[in-house]
Amino acid sequence: MKDIVIIGAGYGGLRALEYLAKEKNFKITLIDKNPYHYMQTEAYGYIAGRFDISDIAIDLNSFVKGLGDNVSFIKDKAIKIDKEKQILTLQNQTIAFDYAIIAVGAQTNFFSFIKGAKEYTHGVKNIQRAFEFRQAFEKRLYLKLEEKKLHRNGDLHIAIAGAGLSGVEIAAEMAHTLKKYEKILSKESITLKISLIDAAKTILPGMDSYIINKTEQRLKNLGIQIYTNAFIQEIKERSIYFKDGTKVDFDFIIYTAGIKAAKFIQEIQTEKNNIEQIIPDEYLHLQGSENIFCIGDCTQIKSQEKLLPPTAQTAEKSAQYVAKAIIAKTKNKSYPIFKAKIDGYFVALGGNYAIGMLYEKIKVEGYLAYLLKKLITRVYRHGLEIKVNAGYKKR
Ligand SMILES: Cc1cc2nc3c(=O)[nH]c(=O)nc-3n(C[C@H](O)[C@H](O)[C@H](O)COP(=O)(O)OP(=O)(O)OC[C@H]3O[C@@H](n4cnc5c(N)ncnc54)[C@H](O)[C@@H]3O)c2cc1C
Fold first, then answer.
1. Yes or no: is domain 2-33+76-108+260-342 CATH 3.50.50.60?
2. In angstroms, what is the span from residue 260 Cα to ligand 1's centroid?
C-alpha cells in the first residue's frame, strides 16, 4: 500500500485524485483548507447574480466518499513539507507519505507598488471575497430600489482592475446583467458604468489578436470603458489614481490584476519565478525530490520549452500526467517528460455570448461559443456531481 497525499482540492487536485483513486493499492488523502471545491471559472456568473453558491461550490466530503474506501479527505491547512522525511505538516496533524502532489493554486497578487489595492478592493479568488462583493452590490441595488440616494449623481460605477481572462469575463457579465437591470428598473433609477483597467497595451495580454479584437468590440458594445497602458498607482476608498495623473471614481472596485503562488509555496525551499511559482523539473517533480510533484497554478508549467497559461485546463493536464507518472513509478516503469497542448479556450462575454479558439486555429463566436463553453462546464460539473451523489447517500 502506498500513501499518497494531494495538497489542494482545486481543478488539479481533484483531477489527480480521480485518476489515482482507481488504483486500489493506493491510500490517498486529499487535503484542503476549505470543505468545498471552488469552481473559480464560474465566479464571473456568481458575482453578477446569474449563478448561485450551489453552482460554484462542491462538498468535498461527499465527493471523496463517492470515490471509494481508499480515499479520505482532511479539511486542514498545509503548513510545511519535509522533503527528506516525506512528512507533511498540517495545522492540526502530520502525515507521512510515499508520494505527494502539491496543488495549492494561486492567490491574488496585490503588487506592493499599488497603494491601497488590498484594503479597498473586492475579489473573486476565494468564495468569501466573491460573496462579500455580491452582498454589498445587491444591497446597493436594493437601496436604490428603496429610492435612497446613491452617494454621487445617481451613477453606479464599477471599476475592474486587471483585464486578463477573469477581469474581462467579470466586466462583460456585470455589464450584461446591469443592462438588464436598467431595462427593468428604469434607466432613470440606475445609470450604470463599468471601467476595465490594465497596465498592458491591450486587454487579454498574451492572447491571440483575433480574441483580443473581438473581445474589445464586444466590451465596447456593452458600454464598457476600457483603459489600457494605465498604470495604477493608488486605490482609495472611492477613487483610483493612474501614474499619469488620471483619476477614476467608482462605487465598487474588483481587483483581478494578477496572481502569485499560494502562501504554502513560500515555505518550500526550491527554485521559483517572479510570481513565486515553483519551477519544477521536466517531469513536474519538485527539483531534487522525485516523490513530490507540483501541478496547476502554483507551478510554472512548461511544455516543450513553451510556458502554459495558469488555467484550469493546464492544472488538469498536469494532474493527469502526474497521476500516470505515480502509477508508473509504483510499477517500476519509466515515464516520459511532461508534454501538453492547450486544446483551446473560451471567454464568456456576458449573457449567451462567448468567443473561443480551438486547436490554435478554429475560431468560434457568439451563441455557439457560449454553448460550447457551457457544455465544458456541464461535463466537468456532472462528473463531480455523480461522485457527490454517490457519496451523499453513503453519509
Ligand atoms: C474569475 C476567474 C475566471 C477564470 N476563468 C477560467 C476559464 O474560463 N478557463 C480556465 O481554464 N481557467 C480559468 N480561470 C483560472 C482557473 O480557475 C485556475 O487556473 C485554476 O483554478 C487552477 O487550478 P489549481 O488546481 O491549480 O488551483 P485552485 O483551483 O486554485 O485550487 C487550489 C486549492 O488549494 C487549496 N489550498 C491552498 N492553500 C492551501 C493550504 N495551505 N492547505 C490546504 N489547501 C490549500 C485551496 O483552498 C484550493 O481549493 C479563472 C480564474 C478566475 C479567478
1. yes
2. 11
CATH number of the 117-257 domain: 3.50.50.60
Q: What is the location of CATH 3.50.50.60 in the chain?
A: 2-33+76-108+260-342, 117-257
pLDDT digits (tens, 9 = 90+) for 137-168: 888 777 776 755 555 456 788 999 999 999 99
pTM of the predicted model over 0.90:
yes
**CA 40 to ligand 1 centroid distance, Å:** 6
Separation between Cα atoms, residue 232 and residue 253, nearest integer Å: 13
The string of pLDDT tens digits covering residues 323-340 is 999 999 999 999 999 999
Separation of first and last alpha carbons in the chain: 25
Residue 138 neighbours by CB distance under 10 Å: 11
Identify the residues whose C-beta falls under 6 Å from ligand 1: 7-13, 31-34, 38, 40-41, 43-44, 77-78, 103-105, 124-125, 165-166, 169, 262, 264, 296-297, 310-313, 315
Question: Which candidate, 391, 381, 393, 362, places its Cα nearest to that of 37?
Answer: 381
